[in-house]
Write a structure and sequence with these properties.
The protein folds into two domains: 6-65, 434 Repressor (Amino-terminal Domain), CATH 1.10.260; 78-190, Sandwich (Jelly Rolls). 25% of the residues lie in helices and 29% in strands. The chain has six helices and nine strands. Helix 1 (6-16) crosses helix 3 (32-41) and helix 2 crosses helix 4. The protein is globular. The chain starts with 5 loop residues before the first helix and ends with a strand.
């Protein structure tokens, strides 16, 4: 099976279903400029636009992120988590040249076919930048290491190692390091069918 970049996969699905960028923009609420940037320049956006694009295409989020699929249980060994880094976000323009690290999303069920949950181990560097986002579904976060700030609507909460939170993703939200150290979390994103 051929391996595609995220942008190539979106473009291929669009072509298969005869959906123009403008149509996808209208269906998803994501700007045609951002869709073009993803497809043409390999830009990796935050998770919220990806969820909106997947809904606009009528596919699961996993369809955009998967290389292959299994119907049975998928076991992800601790040593393999870094192999399944799906994308990095929280990077400003020119970030790679400046040493900015952002957020790394390592998939824990990358090969599971037909899933509606996306479990990730996420490393959030102290310098990660993320705007508040909103999307369909729910999220669960468990802090594995470090201290995390959660902005949810107008509230701000702090979570430490061992703390967890479950929330509706439709409310504007974002997470980032609560101090000058990296944070490691287990994040599970659920998007309805």
């Amino acid at each position: 099976m051929a391996t595609f970049t995220l942008g190539e996969r979106i473009a291929e699905i669009r072509k298969t279903y005869s959906i123009s960028r403008e149509d996808l923009s209208m269906r998803s609420g994501v700007s045609a400029d951002l869709i073009a940037k993803i497809e043409d320049d390999g830009h990796i956006p935050d998770l919220a636009p990806l969820i909106k694009i997947s809904r606009g295409l009528g596919v699961r989020l996993g369809t955009l992120l998967d290389d292959q699929g299994q119907l049975g249980p998928v076991i992800c060994r601790a040593a393999d988590t870094a192999v399944f880094t799906r994308f990095k976000t929280g990077l400003p323009e020119g970030a790679l040249a400046t040493g900015h690290h952002g957020m790394s999303f390592n998939a824990l069920a990358a090969d599971k076919t037909g899933r509606h949950m996306e479990p990730f181990i996420v490393r959030i560097e102290a310098d990660a930048q993320q705007d508040k986002t909103t999307h369909e579904g729910e999220e669960f976060i468990y802090v594995l290491e470090g201290s995390l700030t959660l902005e949810y609507g107008t509230n701000k909460d702090f979570l430490n190692t061992g703390d967890s939170v479950y929330y509706d993703s439709i409310v504007p939200h974002r997470v980032y390091s609560a101090n000058d150290k990296a944070v490691k979390i287990l994040a599970v994103v659920y998007t309805p069918v």
